[in-house]
Structures
1.
Amino acid sequence: MSATQKDSARDGLEGVVVAETRLSEVDGLKGRLIIAGHDVEELAGRIPFEAACWLLAHGKLPSSAQIDEVQRALGAARANAFQNLPRIGDALRMGNDMEALRASTAHLSQGDSGAVDQSTELIAATAVFAAARTRTRAGKSPLAPDPTLEHAADYLRMALEHRPAKAAVDALNTYLVTVVDHGMNASTFAARVVASTSSDMVSAVVAAIGALKGPLHGGAPGPVLDMLQAIDSPSRARSWLEAELGKGHRIMGMGHRVYRVRDPRAAVLEKAIEQLSKAGLATERLTLARAVEKEAERLLQERHPERALRANVEFYTAVLLDAIGLPGTAFTPTFAVGRVAGWCAHYLEQQKAGRLIRPASRYIGPRPSERP
Ligand code: COA
């Protein structure tokens, strides 16, 4: 294939607009993320996850009564999802944590939980299944939800057993709101492709979970934590990173397909970690992470002067989720706990827009006449 042909095939669909959406916009040059009319900085740290779910579903922020309404609906749906656990038991023990989440979710049929709407059912089930897997992995039985708690608090309680500190719940709410939606990322696109075939919402979410699992998308924060643990001290950052790059490895948590500046979500999460530090959590890790980020940025700049490779959301996700007590294996499932609200909203939007997504490919194999 010639260079021009390859270019017109748009490897990775970079820059190709595949849908119109009212849900979010990513401006990669300015480093700006708008979620349903609000800058991410206006939302994260200021509203609970319930309000972000409402915002995506209704296009405007809820009143406090409406937040309570979402909290009650999610609480009831979590209780119902928990009833499904005996049925999906083996799936929870599968391979890694994202495989377990994918398999558990695949056991659902729409309407299983009796939740008032499909999105609520899936948002609730994702938290219940992810937390149950964290417990199962630790050799413990899943904990039943407490429907009176807000979603973030109950997710942490179900995963960790103890009732979490307010600072931890606030940090998790900030995280879930920050990642709730992000333009046409790979998992959202996967969900929209499934939606466009008029398939069901469970299938769309299962496809999205599969896409999120990959280390180039949502699978990076676990490896970021491994990296920080291996580096251990700011003074070791440079030599460790140089050795990784020397082996041809990518530095996890750095670089982005769309952002040509620092991912704005990295700054939002870094601020949330500062709050956690004030509550006595994460202090040393934050200092280390900042040093590693600075060094990684410098080394990547030397190697790729043509392209800004800066910290992405996953870099500080690892620090935040670790500080609130979640194990590294639960990081990507926790990403799904937030992003599932975006997937469901995109599913509904795509269904309304209604056209089958069916792109073209260019055949580069032999023609029958050219076959050897
Ligand atoms: N570490 C080292 N090199 C990197 C890099 C990283 N994190 N990210 C990109 N590069 C390099 C690539 O190797 C490539 O170099 P080459 O031209 O010599 O082959 C160049 O930068 C361009 O990268 P490209 O693969 O075109 O970028 P992309 O838009 O396809 O990829 C990511 C974007 C996010 C997949 C990529 O930056 C990455 O793999 N980051 C690490 C994983 C991660 O943090 N994922 C979470 C994303 S939110």
Note: The beta strands are 24-27, 32-35, 38-39.
2.
Amino acid sequence: MTKEIRVAVVGAGLMGADHIRRISTRTTGAVVAAVVEPDAGRAAAAAALAPGASVRARFEDALDLDSLDAVIIATPAAFHEPVILPALQAGIAILCEKPLTDDPESALRILEAEQQLSRPHIQVGFMRRFDAEYLELKALIDSGDAGALLALHCAHRNPSAPPSATTAGMIVDSVAHELDIVPWLAGSPLASVEVRFPRRNSLAAKNLRDPQLILLETESGVLADVEMSVNIQFGYQVRTEGVFERGVAEIGRPSGLAQWRSGSYARAEHANFDTRFAGAYDVEVQRWVNATLLGRTDGPSAWDGYLVAVAAEAGVLAQTTGSRVEIKSGHKPAFYELPPTGVSTPA
Ligand code: ISE
């Protein structure tokens, strides 16, 4: 492989454009070779961020014409599989935004296709695993310094939901992050999920049950409550508190400039996830590029993506039953044990 990988970015919405800017301005060892986006206006705006990139309406055209080494997929989840399967067939590296897919069946098809290759090629964009604060909390848990982890209180708050948001989608697209990060923090797979609906936010679209309270339990008995709000207006906030045998630890409070003025105290909160997790995305993408140059992956695998799809399906069922739903994922294939996909060492 060359010293600079040629990447196609598929999907030029907020996240795709963000990755194009990232690779073009602050990632080493990679160049955006193609922007794949059927909407001509969006494609042109995104391509302007990556001088020299071709603009294609179809991923297959980029595969045929742009000598790709890798692809970043940043389309809605329903369009992931049609890009992943030909990318796997071409043997290129894949960084797929979360969730891997929006149902376990398509995730399974992807696992099967990937296992035809000699090693994993897919990394899923669960960027929280690269966030400095999450890494600190994980190190505390793993060190045992505060005793065993007993419970987690998680708050995941978005300022406003797009018109396309749905009650089930809040689990599949948003709580997907907690479905990945809770077992990662606890070091134990998810065993069950329960969903309750508090009083509805009248600012949410009529069809949307927002907020939602989700209770996750790991096989080791750690309980995590998650408040998922998608119309909370004030800003973007992801907070996590760990309850240990000998204390508590919290991440996700606003940091940076604090002001005391006109009889009040203020600290700016993030407006959206692209700034809250900017550092995590930078590390994630740089490490993925570095790993790709070495013929490896370095982050959450397609298996992790499949586990989230299974847990999300259970969560959507739990929304309708109102009771605890077991999460049954099966055994991890040996294929996903090699090479290591942990992200514990900083770049
Ligand atoms: C979005 O796709 C993300 O990944 C954000 O982190 C999350 O907060 C938001 O709810 C999702 O829609």
Note: The pocket of ISE is lined by residues 158, 173-174, 177, 273 (CB under 6 Å).
3.
Amino acid sequence: VRILVTNDDGVNAPGIFALRSAAAGFGEVTVVAPDTEQSGVAHSITLVQPLRIRKVHHGEQFFGYGINGAPADCVKLACREILPEPPELLLSGINLGSNVAIDILYSGTVAAAIEGAVLNIPSIAFSLAETEEPDFEEAALVVHDLLQSLLLDGLPACRLLNVNMPALPRSRIKGIRVTHQSRTSYNERYERRVDPWGRSYYWITGELTRDFEQEPDSDLRALRDGYVSITPLHHDLTHYQAVPELRKRLAADWGKGEGRVAREG
Ligand code: MN
């Protein structure tokens, strides 16, 4: 299996070392990742700056390619320029910190996997729900076991999976749950501080509200209960249930064509 490994924490982040070694047993691995941390850039791409590909070595050892762009740039460049053939599997992570609930929309880790799915590559995002003292070696054991299960009968039919791992040793993880994205939101606020010149600056902060207690099958709840969470995702954001009603309502004012708005009169 040709495997592309990427992330949003940067090509030198410990999480990508762990993911690369976990993937190594399953095929031929190529690392293509951002030069610098890109957490929170979501699915952005670089349009107004030139992109450069840099070979990254650790000691004498070639490690992979670093790019001065976003995770989605890395996936595109890997598939279109770096790899002689498209990868058969894309793995993104292992992210420092979980990517659950609304964070999925901001995540560069998940965006890289979405980009892979857009390019027809089965793609999996991996995140570890720990930011203080992450044990990526233990997380890599989970990745390894999960890949083994998923690849057993060929690559998964669902092209986009979001995996979150609790901050527990492999032996203490209770199991795996197939989950949905929690609807929990943030108690969000900005911390205002003052720089040495008397000007204000801001840091976003806050914590997730606790209403995932009411969501037994959610990603957040699985983590809290000590399970690995795996959520199949889809990048089509259309709200299909809303389509018929909106068509009907617009048809009244906009005439025939079931509410399709014509470009000219
Ligand atoms: Mn990150």
Note: The first strand starts at residue 2 and ends at 6.
4.
Amino acid sequence: MTKRVINFSAGPSAIPLAVLEKAKEELLDYNGTGMSVMEMSHRSKEFTEIIEKTEAGLRENMAIPDDYEIIFIQGGASLQFAMVPMNLYEKGKPVNIIHTGLWTKKAIGELKNLTEYRIAASTEADGYRRLPSESEINIDKNASYLHIVSNNTVVGTQWKNFPKSGDVPLVADMSSDILSREIDVSKFGLIFAGAQKNIGPAGAAVVIIRRDLAERASEKLPIMMQYRTYIENKSLYNTPPTFTIYIMKLVMDWIKSQGGVKAIEKMNIQKADLLYNAIDESPFYQSPIAPEFRSLMNVVMRINRSEELESKFVKEADRAGLSGLKGHRLAGGIRASIYNALDINAVKKLIEFMKEFEKKNG
Ligand code: PMP
């Protein structure tokens, strides 16, 4: 029998088993074509249907309004750190960014070379263990846009209420919490996310952009750097990551089969509550993040600040079939990423293991 572990990895991460099984079933012969989606022309009738269904599935699952375009693009979320300013920055209107961790640091790294920018708030002085309050955030009224990261994958913080940016378009990197909770897309100018957490395998990113914003870019930008290229060509200007897009379609179908994002969100809250409660109830484990900022997706915990015990925990958990629990190299500790594909039983197994480990080492 195939051995499957419980995968708590931060990304690439677990894919719903039903999706993998469907992909396996269709791997050699997709829908009677006698070939794998991997081998198929991106211009074929079958693939055209796949990419259209992927887009329609995402639109339905996120209730994306009609005045927003969806594109599939390579280069991961990281390319968007450059592509967003290249397309959305308007001269004399500095980009504003709220600095909350490693992934805004990387975005700022690109802004340094590309545009004027201003940090509208930062929690760096607190080790990013919290998010800024409304009174700390100072947004330029004439900013080109405001950049935030909705869920900070490394430290484990997540915006519950997004900052209000007025007429300034809000741009959100939702790489690690897209499709995990209901959001009102119309509040955003642009949303982007790498696929490899809640959308599917690595190899693509999704950009959801209000149509008018895509027209800001100079037509002198490299063609592959303009959002309008992807919009006009329905993400088929060149060869897209076809197999990744196909798996994304299966993930969209799976989300619908679960009752949609609303039902997924309910599960995610239950999963996170269970895990944070187990941490809070024990004197052995600690959460470095105050409850109001805690991520539902990436649960970071420490063991009495003992790196030795933490590393023992990760090793023994791995042996027990609980994989990917090592914290990010910058944050240390233990991190359980409990994306959509992990169900409540996965969290219960982790808690059982935590209790056993505490008994032996506490
Ligand atoms: N933003 C966030 C919030 C992330 O978690 C990650 C990856 N972990 C990235 C950006 C970078 O994504 P990619 O590797 O797809 O460039």
Note: The two ends are 36 Å apart (CA to CA).
